[in-house]
Design brief:
With 331 residues, the protein is an alpha/beta fold. It contains eleven helices and twelve strands. Strand 8, helix 10 and strand 9 form a beta-alpha-beta unit.
């Protein structure tokens, strides 16, 4: 009867590597798995409980890791990956990382242990170095909505700073000078990039950023309400605001309305993402469109079809003008 030592000798690897293959360790490269499995067949080695991970297992799946499930943004992202999965006859397996590095890694290991070798990941918590190491071992691994230097081929991302620059410039063009900004409190790449665009537009107009104009709040509608309440309590002469996302913008508009401040007559507002159904809002929200579904489709195609030019895939934001911006009084 053949042993694990026979397999290791035939495959030209250590017995530890053979053990990792048998136990479905995510740390083994696909080509190494293939070599070990070929050696198993060659020497007639059989595992006792049939735990061996076939290199072809998971070939009918595509994995998706989201930051959370409770958002239209991630619904559109999922929809984009699902469209590609259906086109290729793949089953979609979804996990969540909850903006936590340990949970993101846990979700990734879960998909790898399920045999997924094509994975789209929305990662905001794991470090660049971690993601680069994974990408070097897993060619079918693609990061969506984040740019990671060193793995550009495997990133699909949005020019976030350009989006908030367009939003702020739009308000400046309408005569606004005192423009507040609602940001998220999580230290993620989007936060820094979007604040940079806001800051750049103000500086080009000769306006220094007033720290009192900037509110950092938790994700969710309650965050936008908190930011609006804080701005009201400060009694600042703010005539406009840019929000990190549409949820912040919508919740802030409601709080201002409850205090007799109408939009856009007394306060102009611009959101970001364009993921809320406008039929439910008055006024309809001017916002920056993030083409997240198109980005997800492209990311899913890349992880299945492979990479082409070697240049990172960069998507452009679009300012969508609706009814929540008006000329500043006395502009």
């Amino acid at each position: 009867m053949s042993t694990i030592n026979d397999v290791a000798k035939a495959a030209g690897v250590s017995t530890a590597t053979v053990s990792r293959v048998i136990n479905r360790s995510p740390s083994v490269l696909p080509e190494t798995i293939a070599r070990v499995e070929q050696a198993m067949e060659q020497v007639g080695y059989q595992t006792k409980d049939n735990r061996r991970l076939s290199i072809n297992q998971g070939g009918d799946t595509i994995g998706l890791i989201l930051s959370n499930f409770n958002s239209p943004f991630f619904g559109l992202l999922t929809q984009g990956v699902e469209k590609v999965a259906r086109k290729y006859g793949r089953k979609l397996i979804v996990a969540s990382g909850q903006y936590d590095p340990e949970l993101e890694e846990e979700a990734l290991n879960y998909l790898l242990n399920k045999g997924c070798r094509n994975i789209v990941m929305h990662s905001k918590a794991m470090s660049d170095d971690q993601l680069i190491r994974i990408a070097s071992k897993l060619p079918g691994f693609v990061i969506v909505n984040r740019y990671v230097p060193g793995m550009e081929e495997q990133c699909v991302w949005l020019e976030n700073r350009k989006g908030t620059y367009l939003a702020t410039k739009h308000l400046l063009d309408h005569g606004h000078r005192n423009i507040a900004y609602i940001s998220c409190e999580l230290e993620i790449d989007d936060k820094a990039e979007r604040f940079f665009g806001y800051q750049k537009a103000l500086e080009e107009a000769g306006i220094s950023v007033n720290p009192d104009w900037v509110e950092e709040v938790p994700f969710g509608e309650h965050g936008g309400a908190l930011a609006a309440t804080n701005l009201l309590n400060k009694g600042l002469p703010v005539t406009a605001l840019v929000a990190y996302n549409d949820f912040f913008a919508a919740a802030a508009i409601q709080v201002f309305a409850d205090h007799g401040i109408s939009v856009p007559e007394r306060l102009s507002v611009v959101g970001f993402d364009d993921v809320l159904p406008q039929c439910y809002f008055t006024p309809r929200l001017t916002t920056v469109r993030s083409p997240i579904e198109s980005m997800a489709i492209h990311a899913a195609r890349l992880c299945i079809e492979g990479f082409g030019s070697g240049v990172s895939t960069r998507f452009q934001p679009l300012l969508v003008r609706r009814n929540s911006v008006a000329l500043a009084i006395n502009a």
